[in-house]
Amino acid sequence: MRTPSVRYRIFRIGNLVFLTLLSLTMILPFINVLAQSLSSSEAIMGGKVSFWPVAFTWINYEYVFGDASFWRAFAVSVGVTLFGTLVNLAATASLAYPVSRPEYKGRSLVVMFVLVTVVFSAPLIPNFILMKELHLVNNPLVLIVPGAINAFNFFVMRSFFSQLPGELIDAARIDGCGEFGIIWRIVIPLSKPAMASLGIFYAVGHWNAYSTALYYLNDPAWWPIQVTLKKLFESDDISVDPGSAVYSTLAHTSPEGIKMATIIIATLPIIIIYPFLQKHFVKGIMVGSVKS
Amino acid sequence: MGTRLGDAGRYLWRYRILYLLSVPGILYFFLFKYVPLFGSVIAFQNYNIFKGITGSDWVGLEHFQKMFSHYDFLRILNNTLLLGLYDLVIAFPVPILLAILLNEVRMIVFKRLLQTIVYMPHFLSWVVISGIFMGIFSMDAGVVNKALGFLGMQPIYFLGEDSYIRSILIGSGIWRDSGYGTIIFLAAIAGINPDLYEAAEVDGAGRLKQIWSITLPSLLPTIMILLLLHIGKFLDLGFERVFVFLNPLNLESGEILDTYIYKAGLLSQQYSYTTAIGLFKSVVGLMLILLGNFFSKKTTGESLY
Predict the structure, then answer these.
(1) B210 — phi, psi (to 5°)?
(2) B305 found inside a domain
């Protein structure tokens, strides 16, 4: 290895400075939101808060946690994320596994059938008419059923299954193990890593889902957290119930602070699972890109 | 013949569980992906919810003609094309550059830290991102305007002025997705044969020269494939990404086909007209991808199929 040239050394230092600044622009806005959510209304409106809370207070969080509509939306999102992810994994695997086995004649036909849906997708209104016909409009199942299988995830899972040792499955079959026995005793235990990574991806999708609910759910009782959050941004004044505990301290809450606290709470689950997520998505992208 | 059918039947019976398992998934794709695709024929009808697709009157290309003579549609098409173009010219190259720069970081721990941070925004919802942007760009409480004030400038109402919306849309897109987009390029860089670098080093090429004449050319196939995929989605900026930033003050330049389809289709119930717009979008996308593929095959030999 030669000693690097002066020009390269300058480049390298500049590069480090640039990348550090860049990652600060990714993280500072979030810290700013966090600081505002923990600051008093006067401090926020006076423009005094940058990256550290001013006149520290939990009042904004107390307000959000005291709000029934927040809890309802939170419960809808948690429910849809848990139940929806289970449905996603079961549906995706039950198509991806057979299509990954060489014994399944007509594999390429099914693959083409799915691939076509990636290239051609229907406009909004024909989808809306279908949901109406299926009685999924204003039905919370619309958040789960129409998205049961993601074509990209289907391809990822199929390529994972096709890497499972076929000899193991053949041997089990010769030993008289039924198809369900093979799935239960061999396939599922071996596919835990794939299930975990795709499950996390599906879960993030459910937690962040916004437009599906906006299109198909009019009843606020079924709005997930993202829709409620967006409605909160659209409303300029936040009315507080005079009987509520925070009413007396209302002077210290502000629409801004409440919005920021809600952003933090709505993002917390993502931040908590992010370390697990990060472990998987690099590999996931690789498998996916090999496929395409 | 009879025996062959019998063989096929026996084969299917033997692997019946595999076939049965795949039936729900196949039905799912048929019902939720193919049926609405066929349902798109309402673009050629005056669709009436009470009469249904079979009972509604056929009107041929009337809705497509209406589309091209409609002032609103042309303005929104213009917005969509402009944003698509900015996305292609400004946002598309960012992950490539970023991956090359990240690859030059030698301290592994620092590199991992940088990667962790730049991937992160991709996993925030667009609603949360719009909230964060509203916070930092707000008139009186936002840090951006505070910084402008520090420099002696007047505060700007970024999200409430039509002239800033396109920059905000493109900027937020870069902020959210460029870090995540580096993953595929970093993988491609990792796959480059190290012998190439050693040979270049023996020939006296410096590190910067190596980036230019080894790293970048080696990335070209990946870049071409992603570019082709991107071109196919030229009019597809994504509904959520734009919708969360729109308000009556920035609608003029910010509204795109997808948000218009939602508003005119679902909220004002112009079902057939907006389906025609959606169909137009898909057909343009398909033509672009075929065209791009053709030119790419001719010039670089890379193609999608």
Answers:
(1) -65, -40
(2) no
Which has more confidence, A40 or A146?
Answer: A146
**Which residue of B18, B105, B145 is in closest CB contact with A104?**
B18
A101: nearest CA partner in chain B:
B18
Global pTM value: 0.90
B55, part of any domain: yes
Count of structural domains within chain B:
2
Cβ contact, residue pair B21, A98, below 8 Å = yes
Token pair belonging to A231: 């409605």
- For chain A positions 118-147, those within 8 Å of chain B (CB to CB) are 119-130, 132, 145-146
Q: Which residue ranges of chain B lie beneath pLDDT 70?
A: 1-3
**How far is A189 from A183, CA to CA, in rounded Å?**
9
Residues B74 and B108 in one domain: yes
For residue A292, what pLDDT band results from cuts at 50, 70 and 90?
very low
Q: Is A175 exposed, middle or buried (0-12, 13-18, 19+ CB in 10 A)?
A: exposed
**Residue of chain A whose alpha carbon sits nearest to that of B102:** A19
**pLDDT at residue B9, as a whole number:** 86
Mutate to test the interface with A, among B127, B146, B263, B273 (most CBs of A within 10 A): B127
pLDDT tens track for A97-142: 999 988 898 999 999 999 999 888 899 999 999 999 999 999 999 9
Tens digit of pLDDT for each residue in A193-212? 889 889 999 999 999 999 99
Q: Does residue B128 lie within any of the structural domains?
A: yes
DSSP per-residue letters across A109-166:
HHHHHHHHHHH----HHHHHHHHHHTT-TT-GGGGTGGGS--HHHHHHHHHHHTTS-H
Do B74 and B53 belong together in one domain?
no
Dump pLDDT digits (tens) for B283-296.
998 898 888 888 88
Min distance A124 CA to chain B CA atoms (Å): 7
B196 plus B68 within the same structural domain = yes
ipTM of the complex: 0.89
> What pLDDT shows up at residue A31?
92
User: Are residues B262 and B171 part of one domain?
Assistant: yes
Measure the CA–CA gap between B263 and B257, rounded to whole angstroms: 10
Parent domain of B34? 1-60
